[in-house]
Every structure is written in C-alpha cells, then in structure tokens.
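Re: that chain you flagged

S.,

Sorry for the slow reply, it's been a week of failed gels. I finally had a moment to sit down with the sequence you sent. For the record, here it is as I used it:
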Amino acid sequence: MTRHVAFERVHNFRDLGGYRTRDGRVLRWGRLYRADSLAKLRGADWDRFVELGVRTVIDLRYPWEIAAKGRVRRLDGLAYHNLSVEHRPYDQAALGPDVDPARFLADRYAEVAYDGAAELRRALEIIAADDNAPLVFHCASGKDRTGLLAALVLALAGVDEETIVADFALTELASARLIADWRAAHPDRTLVWPGYGRAPGDIMRFFLADLAAAHGSVEGYAAERLGVGGDLVEALRGHLLEP
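Prediction finished late last night. Pasting the structure tokens below so you have them in one place:
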C-alpha cells in the first residue's frame, strides 16, 4: 500500500499505517487516516473515499469553518464528530513575511494543546475505540490541527520523534496545491506570508520539545493535561498496532 491516497480535490489524505514503534511493532494499514477537508470530496473522489470503508470522521475545524465550507457528506454507517480543538483563530495568510514558521506555529500548537484539552482527549477516546475504525481525522489543510493530533497518536502508539517529524513534513508534498486552492478561493486577497501551507519539520520538533520540557514527554502531557490513562493508551495501541 502507498501512504498517500490519491484524490483529485483532496490533496493531503494519508494512511498512518506502516510506521514502526520503538519496540518493533508496526501500525496497521487502513485503520487510521489523516487528511485535509473532506468537504471537497465530489464525484470520483467521493466514490474512492467510500471504497476505503471509513466508519468515523473527526472534523477538527471551527463550526464557522464548517458553515462556510461544508462537511463530509452524510453516509449510512458513517459517524461524524466535530471537535474544534483550536480556540484562538488567526489568519496565517495575512502574517508578515518576517514571521518564522517554525517558532510561530509551534507556539500556536502549544496553545491548542492546552486550550483544546477536552476536545483532544475526546478525539483520542474515539480513535482508541476499535469499532470506530477505519477512521479519518482532518482540518482544513490537514497540516496544523491534524498534524498535532497525528503527533499525539503516533507518540502514544510508541513511534519515535524523528518519524513523527517526518510524517508531519509530508504535507510539503501538498503545499503547492493547498496554496493554489487558497488563491482560487480568495481571488480578491494577496497571500502575504511565505510560510503559508508549508510544513518544515522544525515546527513539530519545537512543539514536541516544548511538551517534553513542560511534562517530560508526550505521554506525560497526555496524562497530566488530558487525563489520558494507561487503559486508553493500551486500547489505542491494541487495535492500531499489528499483533
């Protein structure tokens, strides 16, 4: 299987299977996906999505984003959860060219990690339930909010930091198309920030380092801030990892 699932209008849909944990186990393919907005699924894209057999969607966007841009289509047997993890909106496209993407976005992720604790815990609970799989979680571009949740899941599953950083940086392969989508949707605006749509690995390195400095590890953060106990972590590992 390939990690990227090819769609015409969805640019950043990826299978999180195949990653190896520190103790030698492997994440199962076809169980957990990350993506940009599924509201863009149409025609053959929708048919391809249905073929994946997804049973659960977690939409990490604000309700006002969903009202403006739409959500994944309703389908019998498809559960939908809107868990808006970000509580302090900001306009990336309007940032000045002198804003460093790595430090700026790592700081925004830290805000989400604390402001969105209740939503992140609920997302982990849903992901940890075996009968919710296959599952896909997404935001608008599949980079920031989605990247944060992917990092938490991979870390709790036992994946090492460099692999988590590399998974985050794969969004770079979709950056040009995500930027083109933004320009098409905003013909009356100028894209000011050169960092828009980019995913340099240092963003995730800084974020993980900040969590480790405050809590000792991602696992420590999850326990102390999210109230995630060993039972939830074991449930998550139990169905995401191959025996």
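What I noticed first: Strands lie at 14-15, 32-35, 56-59, 79-82, 135-138.

Talk soon,
D.
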